[in-house]
Amino acid sequence: MIANTLHRNITFLYNFLSKHYKANPFTRHMNTSDNLLSFNRNGKLLFYLDRTYVREIFDDPTPKDLIQVSGWVKSIRSACKGTLLFIDFTDSTTILPLQIAVSNTIPNFGQVKNLTMGSSVSFIGKLSTEPTLELKLESEDSGHKFHIYNKIDNSDNYPIAKQALSVDYIRSFPHLRARTRFGSSIIHARSELINLTHKYFKNKKFTHITTPIITTMDAEGAGCQFKITPGNFFGTPTYLAVSGQLALEVLTCSVGDTYTLGPTFRAENSNTTRHLSEFWMLEVECSFAQLNDIITIAEDYIKYVAKQMMQTEWIKYLDEYNGDVIQRLSELINNEVIVVSFDECMEIIKNNYNGQTVGSINISRDDERVLIEHFGNKLIAITHFPSVNRPFYMKRTNSGKSTFSFDIIAPEVGEIVGGSERETNYQRLVKQMEEQKMNVECYKKYLDMRIFGSIPHGGFGIGIERLLMFLTGVKNIRDVIPFPRMISHAEF
Q: Which of 103, 135, 157 is the last residue of a domain?
């Protein structure tokens, strides 16, 4: 009785949709949802389908009578004198394409035959493992159907129609490069890295903070900020944040260990393969911590994400694409970070240049290469940088000549981490700000935390794009962010 009632209700719904929308309800539903009602030619409901992802098919390749997939055509070829079509199909949930076999017994077979690379389509068919894993469309009576959302009529105008394209070429098409294996792998690897980051710090009992993007302060004291206009909207000059650190610091003095992950902005005149004007930064503040504690957290985090990322299909593909990525990451995970002072690094660099005088307050990109060659394929934590040209918030040693600071440099990409202990003494902090000719009044609320229950704390920042370059072997930072922003370039 229940079955008969259900059948009558479904039949009524089908007839109602057919009458009032004057269209196949299947087609109308296809345009608005990922769930499909599949009917045979007599109007009998065969199945209510949830969309199946290609990743799920490869994870569980069990034959199924009827499934639906939705995505894009990668390539198409004919066989059996044109009566059978084989389509390489992707929905970007996996590197692997799913083969779809369409027989000419399916109505409107010619529409499938005219599909081009990049066309978006849904298929309903039978999942088979004989002779190979594929989705078969053979009989409309069995509910086998397709629906074309968008066909690229002039494939010659499709910028990424070819199979083999250089990274330099697809960089010119940021809105389409995710359709390529390389571009898709980067997008998924980036997503995986961000997910792993939140997982790591949640497990470490850190509190996630969303810090403001609009700010009145310069967290670095370097003046490389984008000013927001109109200037009187907030009643005071405001800027895009170069860092969320100062907000993290004040909250760390109330809630303990914190971190933030979000966009930051630098108005630097740097047009290199390692710099962006808008990039994502992981910033971490550790309560009741000293320099060694902070370095340990940074090292542990990098090794954690490297170990997890190595197991993903995205990194495995990029390892084949770029070479030796997994081997390099494996060596890094199995080696402890090298902790070496700035002065010791200067001696190593000086010896490399046959005793000639080298820079005394900074380590250049060439200097980084010297150190990496000297220590091998390891993370190198360089500590105690000179006080000159260091940010105002860094705690100084008793001599005042150096800071409790560190950078971590890595093979291939150089610096990926910068951090320090923070100065917690009110008078010393104000003095350091005045030395850099900063407007102390603008930082009053930040300075309050040095009066109202301050604690020893410190932290670090990691550019997500730099870290992703290291994890993927990609050479240009513009290839690891979907829509890069740099000087004289802000497309899309």
A: 157
Boundary of a domain, candidates 157, 176, 208: 157
Residues 252 and 346 in one domain: yes
Domain assignment of residue 148, yes or no: yes
**For residues 259 and 286, what is the distance between their CA atoms, to the nearest angstrom?**
9
In a domain, 23, yes or no: no
Neighbours of 158 (CB within 10 A): 16
Query: How many residues in total does the chain contain?
Result: 492
Number of structural domains (the chain) is 2
DSSP bridge pairs for 260: 283
Residues of the chain with pLDDT > 70: what percent?
88
pTM: 0.88
2 vs 402 pLDDT, higher one: 402
Residue 222 sits in a domain of what CATH number? 3.30.930.10
Q: What is the 3-state secondary structure (H, E, C) of 164-224?
A: CCCHHHHCCCCCCHHHCHHHHHHHHHHHHHHHHHHHHHHHCCCEECCCCCEECCCCCCCCC
Question: For residue 49, which of 31, 71, 66, 64 has the smallest C-alpha distance?
Answer: 66
Q: Does residue 182 sit within a domain?
A: yes
Burial class (CB in 10 A: 0-12, 13-18, 19+), 291: buried
Q: How far apart are CA 35 and CA 67, in angstroms?
A: 11
Note whether 75 and 117 are within 8 A (CB).
yes
When pLDDT is cut at 50, 70 and 90, the band that residue 389 belongs to is confident
